[in-house]
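Record type: monomer structure entry
Structure origin: computed from sequence
Chain ID: A
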Amino acid sequence: MESEESNETLSEWLPPELAERARVAAARDAQTAERIAAKKTKDRDKKNRKDREPPKPPEPRNPRFALAITLLGLALYLAREVATALAAPGRAAGVAALNYAAAACTALVYVKFLVGRRWHKPVLGALLALGLGCGVASALWSTALEPERSQRAIGYASAALALILSPMFWLLYGLLRRQSAERRAGLMQLVVLIISLLSLLLGGAARLMNLAQQKPAAAEPLITPERALNFFEGVALLFLLMNWPVLDRTILGEKKPDSPET
């Protein structure tokens, strides 16, 4: 009504051509305002719907594949820990004990993905918390033994970043929040793998530049057994997290859809 009255008022003192242009512009502006308001309402409803709906776990696609990839990941993880222990035999006794405890808990997490339907979530959460706690304590203790302050600062920052990027940390977070976290943990594992590949590429490029400038290459090999095992174990864990709801069910004790949760 107001727009019609304003158009009539304009037509009283404006030429007909300008009044028609003003009427068309006012109608176009009204349509634009309606589209913007509708888009804002749609975006707000979509955001509210996302906030209400908890994240969904991945669909259990293939139990045999999940079983094979879990056993492969466990074998690669144990081989990596052995290779790491052999490569660094001179660690402090307390640091070594914490590392062994963290490794044992992580290995048991893989086993818990496979078996033990009863009390699955509490036991899995306890193993995740204990493994992460021992790993962080080991990293902090090892960093505290560094003689230089700059090395200690880098070590503390690396320990914090490693914890945030750890998929086990996000699985524990999902258990504490009582929501699915497999896909989020898988995303963090993918980030870790990308960082590993970038580090490998940068190291290779630096070596090529040193060779081109006839400089001596670094003494440490670019690809060590523990690095290779760590990468492939991460790939196996990524496939597992994206293909099986490890927080809800075990692989060998899969529940039927109509069976009550224990």
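Annotation 1: Residues 9 and 19 are 9 Å apart (CA to CA).
Annotation 2: The chain is about 75% helix and 0% strand.
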